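Need tokens for this chain, all 109 residues.
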Amino acid sequence: MSKERAQRRAEREAAAAKVAQQRAAEAERQARREARKDKLTGWVPTGRGRQTGLLAEKRRRQAGATFAVLVAFNLLVFAFTRDVYMVAFTLVASLLGAPIVHMMLFKRN
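Here are the structure tokens for all 109 residues:
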């Protein structure tokens, strides 16, 4: 009975050593991959993360609404106007007038 337990324990230890060796090899590969990535992209500045919170979400929603209004307006002009110059003028005016449209849509009191 003692010999069987010793043999099973030896098998378990061998399997655990094999798994540990595989983990160590994978960790070494991951470390080399990270070092290579840092060497290649280390000079590129990291961007700021997306701001979270109620005010940031409100600002994104308002900007999206302004964008949607301007796109809808430009699509209507494009659909009902055959004049290319009018469509181009409307597009340029929308881009330049976007802050004013935003201010008119979301007026602060």
